[in-house]
Specification:
The protein has a domain of 146 residues: Muramoyl-pentapeptide Carboxypeptidase, domain 2. The protein is built from six helices and nine strands, in the order ααββββααββαβββα.
């Protein structure tokens, strides 16, 4: 009886193992790049580093994260102008975007160009705000489309030069350039742009003005005598304005004309005898 029960238990265990979904049977994926780390390669200088600790986390609040100062200094040197050897401070927002790209595709980032010392002043490469790169084992089109989720960036796809351009700016803009290395730019028409969100202006809260300090308050604090208050005058009653006499004198009234004298009565003739 005991043997039969053991056999039944083994059979049930094997049956449940075969019935489990395929996703649960697979082992966990081992990531090449650790969390909060970044791996990069430089195409021209041949420098590289793996799993550089870039992002620092507040132990009390895990949502509070920032680019560490040590990693920032090393990346400033790594992204220097490889022709002149001069470097410049790279914005942390650009480094944060590169970190998210590396975490998304779990692959090292190959840098083609970043800071350019001899570029024109208006160029973002001259300002240290741009980088040309690609991701190992990932198509440039896929990387370009993923980077569109970042706010206020400039994204350029260069299919013939084999890299993606990304910079930080005040307003997002996307383009595709079909030119090759060392050739004049050939921009495509009709590249869809990101719809900019309209920012609502917050209504300024009306602040109540504090009453100014008067002579009375200052006198109380200093212990001085109260300043004499001026006597208020009683308001004068307004009287109706007198009517002004006409400046021109009136003409005297004409005297009435005398009545005509009454006519004398006629004598009555005596009666006949």
């Amino acid at each position: 009886m005991i043997r039969r029960r053991l056999l039944w238990a083994l059979a049930l265990g094997l049956g449940l193992g075969f019935c489990l979904p395929s996703g649960l049977a697979k082992p966990r994926k081992k990531y090449k790049i650790k969390r909060y780390h970044l791996s990069m390669r430089h195409v021209n200088t041949k420098e590289r580093f793996d799993n550089l600790w870039v992002i620092r986390v507040d132990p009390k609040n895990k949502n509070k994260q920032w680019v560490g100062n040590r990693a920032h200094k090393r990346l400033n040197h790594f992204l220097r102008d490889w022709r002149t050897g001069k470097s410049k401070r790279i914005p942390k927002r650009l480094l944060w975007n590169l970190y998210l790209v590396g975490q998304r595709f779990d692959a090292p980032i190959e840098v083609v160009s970043a800071y350019r010392h001899k570029e024109r002043k208006s160029s973002r490469h001259k300002q240290g705000k741009a980088v040309d790169f690609r991701v190992v084992g990932v198509s440039n089109r896929e990387v370009w489309n993923y980077c569109k989720r970042f706010d206020n960036v400039g994204l350029g796809l260069y299919p013939n030069s084999n890299f993606v351009h990304m910079d930080v700016r005040d307003r997002s803009y996307y383009w595709i350039d079909d030119s090759g290395p060392g050739e004049e730019s050939e921009y495509r028409d009709g590249v869809t742009q990101r719809k900019q969100k309209k920012r609502r202006r917050k209504k300024a809260k009306s602040r109540k003005k504090k009453p100014k300090k008067t002579a009375r308050r200052s006198a109380k604090k200093k212990g001085a005598k109260k300043a004499p208050t001026p006597e208020k005058k009683a308001p004068e009653k307004k009287t109706a304005p007198e009517k002004k006499a006409d400046s021109a004198p009136k003409a005297p009234a004409e005297p009435a004309a005398p009545a005509p004298p009454a006519a004398p009565e006629k004598p009555v003739a005596p009666a006949a005898p």
